[in-house]
Amino acid sequence: MYCRLALHSALVIRPDIVTLIVRVTLAKSRLFTTPQFAFPLFRCGILFNIRLEVWNAINVVYLIVYYVNIAIFRHVILQELMWKTRRNAYQHQQEKSMNPEIKKEWVDALRSGEYKQGSACLKNSHNEFCCLGVLCNLFAKHFNTEWKGNRLLGKVNYLPQQVVDRAGVNNGDPYTTEGVSLSLLNDKNMPFKEIADEIEQNL
Known about the structure:
Layout (H helix, E strand, L loop, with lengths): L1 H9 L4 H14 L6 H60 L5 H13 L18 H13 L17 H7 L14 H6 L4 H11 L1
């Protein structure tokens, strides 16, 4: 009777609390020390221990699923925000056309083979340039501006504002129609000639 009552209670409240109640009840009762009750008591204790372990396992699985879902949700939201930002930047960029003379000069320089292609910065210590660095170097030659290591006018990775204004682009890292920046195309090892095609068609 006691075992049935305890098992019924386990369905509606936490099994660890039920286990504690049963153990206290059994400790105070001499009735269950007789041989005829010893085996049912042992079996009841095993059932409660098993149920408690299952409960704990379910809680662990629930927490894992919960945090995995949060991570996936955050990733999806961040990706969506990133693509919206890229699309908005490209649409804003399209409102202003690049200076055609500077555009031609930049495209010709990229196709000339004069510049060695680098990545991660405008210009590195090996005298390698990214595609944005080529435009910066054209600006430096025109205005006799000196590079300071890998910096031009204080910038390392993106076009300085003076270069942006002269070229007629709207930001320091122009975007293509696919919402991908020129620096990203460069750092993914797209050759200068293909980047020149992108600039010619989309800027």
